[in-house]
Design a protein that fits this description.
Layout: H1 15-31, E1 33-37, E2 42-46, E3 52-61, E4 68-77
Length: 80
Amino acid sequence: MPEEVLYKTEHQETRTQIAEALRDAADQIESGTVELTNNTDEETVSIPENPKFEVELERLTDSETGDQRYELEYEIRWTK
């Protein structure tokens, strides 16, 4: 199935700023409507009452440098 990215943003933030964004996202998720906006893009989506929720923590190692990084992802999925 082809993938279509409707909205994406990525930037460096403090833990406090990230926590604030996640609290705002939690309020929107609880209300059932999430609005994503930045300077150029805007998307609004309705989330059903019982979507699938996934939490994933990965440790990745750069094959060239051996440097390790971590990724913590929270994902909500549903079918339309």
